[in-house]
Design brief:
Blueprint: H1 5-25, H2 46-70, H3 78-102, H4 115-124, H5 127-138, E1 144-151, E2 157-163, E3 173-180, H6 183-190, H7 194-203, H8 207-213
Antiparallel strand pairs: 1-2, 1-3
The structure holds fe (ii) ion (FE2).
Fe (ii) ion (FE2) binds next to helix 2 and helix 6.
Length: about 220
């Protein structure tokens, strides 16, 4: 059979479709992001940050390991069920750290004409009222996170307490500002003075990053 330009083009089209389909079907392997730009941040020692980066990398590694294992073990086993229950803990441990580091590294000053400043003022009465509630949530006893969530169905902004990594998330909510209040986040630099850590966190918020997460 003679090789014509038409047959070559047809072959290339089929090959491209095969490559695209195969690539799209491949599961994602998560890669730890580099947050070394945060070194030197006021109120956070490099030593504490390095420790925190290593902890974060552990969540990325475990998320990948759990997803790989789940794809291989029999679904009728207790190991499968327990790993399914645990996945959200590891995954959220990974993602929440990325959001947390991602909203740090700024100067803590919220531009008054930004969308986020307007929305917080509308919904909480003033930026101060919102901040007081966010800080009070962080001061609660226990380990976890504070997340300023945007309810995407209504646009309402809600300061939310997340127990550990996985309990208390708002379904369909968009996390705007995330603060780690596990002990490893503040004890290395502040001991039991969690309030001082929260103040340091506020002085380093990157409000441009927070504003960019806003949906409605
Ligand atoms: Fe953490």
């Amino acid at each position: 059979m003679p090789i014509t330009m038409k047959s070559v083009l047809a072959f290339l089209t089929i090959l491209t479709l095969f490559v695209v389909t195969t690539a799209a079907a491949a599961p994602v392997t998560y890669q730890a992001k580099d947050f070394s730009r945060l070194r030197g941040m006021k109120g956070f020692s490099d030593q504490a940050l390095e420790l925190h980066f290593v902890l974060y990398q552990g969540y990325v590694k475990n998320t990948n390991a759990m997803l790989e294992t789940l794809a291989q073990i029999a679904s009728s086993t207790p190991a499968y069920a327990e790993m399914k229950r645990r996945l959200g803990w590891e995954y959220n441990g990974m993602r929440l750290h990325e959001l947390y580091f991602g909203n740090l590294g700024g100067d803590g000053k919220i531009p008054p004409d930004s969308k986020i400043a307007k929305r917080l003022t509308e919904q909480f009465g003033s930026l101060e009222s919102w901040a007081n509630d966010f800080k009070a949530t962080g001061a609660m006893r226990g380990i976890g996170w504070v997340v300023l969530y945007e309810d995407q169905a209504s646009g309402r902004l809600i300061n939310t307490w997340i127990n550990e990594h996985d309990l208390g998330h708002l379904a369909g909510g968009q996390p705007l500002l995330v603060m780690d209040v596990f002990e490893h986040a503040f004890i290395p630099d502040y001991g039991l003075k969690k309030g001082d850590y929260i103040e340091a966190f506020f002085q380093n918020i990157d409000w441009k990053a927070v504003d960019a997460r806003l949906g409605k």
